[in-house]
Amino acid sequence: MDQSFMKIIRDRRSVRVFEPRPVEEEKVSLLLEAALRSPSSRGLNPWQFVVVTEKKTLEALSVAKPHGAGFLAGAPLGIVVLADPRRCDVWVEDTSIVATYIQLAAEFIGLKSCWAQIRLREDGQGGMATDRAREILAIPEGLEVASIIGIGYPDEEKKGHPESYLDFSKVHYDTF
């Protein structure tokens, strides 16, 4: 799998339909290594992870947020990205970076992924998706659920966005 970094960036797309086959343990280990090597502010590493492979748990998480997390029910692997806000004031940024590392690592090792924001999202029952995920996964109080990444072998084909998709008018040099 000799891919350049830019090829990975160009090919990566969010995939929401996965083959039912499990992700091999070696690949899960590589994804976790990528996560643990992710940069964080002042090296405080406020993140923690819950690796989910149980179908029933993934199905429960898929309805913790009614819009945008349904694909988790069909994913063979979910990585829940948590943070301890007491450890670092920029935990939101740190968890965003680590989620990106996980997704790029997944692409590099032949998997696809999709990210679901949980933080600040409602659960559709008058509560918050974070609280629902916390309940499903027995996450201790004090930890925040930032996102859940569904990962697996794709069962849908999506090509990367062409260069014409890029909006270079959003790029400014030296001043706005």
UniProtKB/TrEMBL annotation:
Keywords from the UniProt entry:
Oxidoreductase
| Domain of life of the native organism | Bacteria
Record-annotated Nitroreductase domain positions: 9-61, 68-153
Give coiled-coil spans as residue ranges: none
Family to which the UniProt record says this protein belongs:
Belongs to the nitroreductase family.
Q: Which PANTHER family match?
A: NAD(P)H NITROREDUCTASE YDGI-RELATED (PTHR43673), NADH DEHYDROGENASE_NAD(P)H NITROREDUCTASE XCC3605-RELATED (PTHR43673:SF10)
What is this protein called in UniProt?
Answer: Nitroreductase
Supply the source organism for this entry: Desulfoluna limicola
